[in-house]
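Table S2 (continued). Query chain:
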Amino acid sequence: MPVDDVRVRLDRHEIAQLGDSVAAAELTLEVGWGVALDARQHAVRDTGQGAESIQPWPGRDALGPYADVSWDQDHFYMSFHEFGTRFHRSQPAVGPALDRYMHF
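Corresponding output:
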């Protein structure tokens, strides 16, 4: 089960042309994988298992398909790196990957 972190909002006008179709779901997942692979490369590593758990988690709501990009529950500690704690500064990977991957 994914940890809910960042939700990408895309231009609904452009996506509306695809509709709520298989093509829209595939495109959404493709974008999700692009962000996830970038985040894996920049994530803090000890064993690498946390970084490797970063992936897109596809879903569908009233607006159509979406993908949450995050780590799995077994690697919840990745949120400590992403957002920081009072003891450790943040070393984000998912947020910056989204910034690098999305071009507006």
